[in-house]
Amino acid sequence: MGNVNFISAFYIVATYTAFAILIIGILWRIIVYAKTPMCVKIPLTPAPTTTGGAVWRVVSEALFFRTLFRSNKLTWIGGYVFHISFFAIIIQHTLRHYVYDFYNAHPPAWYDALIPIGMVFGVLMLVSLLYLLARRIFVDRIKLISLFSDYFILILLALIAIAGLAQVALQPASQLASDTAKLDTFFNQLTVFQAADIPTNPFFLFHYSLVLFLIGYIPFSKIMHFVGILFSPTFAMVDNPREKRYTDERATRLTI
Questions:
Q1: What is the residue range of 84's domain?
Q2: Which residue has the higher pLDDT, 97 or 253?
């Protein structure tokens, strides 16, 4: 890394470290979830009585938050707006990088629309996060069961949204274009394990630092529900204890 400055060298190491923690952490969590024995049938009734129905139930929960929709429409709106905005921003960031790279730094006219689209979803993401945070602070029954980690992840995501919005709103277009070109080279070099300088303006570095922290924190946070829901026995189990006796070989080795 002798051909890059100290700040770039630091963020190169931080980027590789964050993604290594993310990948290894998710794989470790999947192994733990898969190896955890289920001693008894505990589907959340009324539950599907066929395997296909159980699969659809998990898919509908993961994609549409069906149980939350039935229980609390306002919270469902806040949660769903956040998730849609979050994934839309990830897609927007990815498109900005690869479109810019594909057209060799001379992207088509529609490329400029990606910035206002990102701003719209960024605002929606921030508003939904503030609602979810206020809900945990002011609704007594939610406040009672909330932990520090519940507040922390909402605040972290909100700060990422604020930093991203500020980066676009408070900087001239020329600075954004310069940062985009430099960042494109930075990530391209990372994918082939080579070094390149990173944009060093404070707006970007603050935003990127928070994103790297989030990436490394995911395996240790409740964000892992995006994997855990696939292993949730209350959703994934078929409700057929009368038709088929349920046994788990691993459970028979447990002692009480």
A1: 6-239
A2: 97
| pLDDT value at 150 more than 90 | yes
What pLDDT, on a 0 to 100 scale, did the predictor assign at position 253?
66
Q: How many structural domains comprise the chain?
A: 1
Phi, psi (rounded to 5 degrees) for 3: -95, 10
| Per-chain mean pLDDT for the chain | 91
Q: Residue 32 sits in a domain of what CATH number? A: 1.20.950.20
Q: Given this model, what pLDDT does residue 163 score?
A: 96
How far apart CA 23 and CA 60 sit, in angstroms, is 26
CA separation for the pair 46, 30 (Å, rounded): 27
The answer to whether position 248 is within a domain reads no
Tally Cβ neighbours within 10 Å of residue 244.
9
Q: Residue 141: CB partners within 8 Å, gap ≥ 6?
A: none
Q: Under a CB-based contact definition with an 8 Å cutoff, are residues 227 and 33 in contact?
A: yes
**DSSP assignment, residue 3?**
T
> Stretch 187-212: mean pLDDT, rounded?
93
Judge whether 210 lies within some domain.
yes
Please check whether residue 29 lies inside any domain of the structure.
yes
Q: What is the pLDDT of residue 255?
A: 60
> CA 255, CA 251: separation in Å to the nearest integer?
9
Handedness of CA 78, 81, 87, 93 (dihedral sign): negative
Q: What percent of the chain has pLDDT over 90?
A: 68
On whether residue 47 sits in a domain, the answer given is yes
Asked if the peptide bond before residue 46 counts as cis, ω within 30 degrees of 0, the response is: yes
Of 156, 164, 168, whose CA–CA distance to 213 is shortest?
A: 156
Torsion sign, CA atoms 158, 159, 160, 164: positive
Q: Which two tokens stand for residue 79?
A: 């949660």
pLDDT at 109 over 90: no
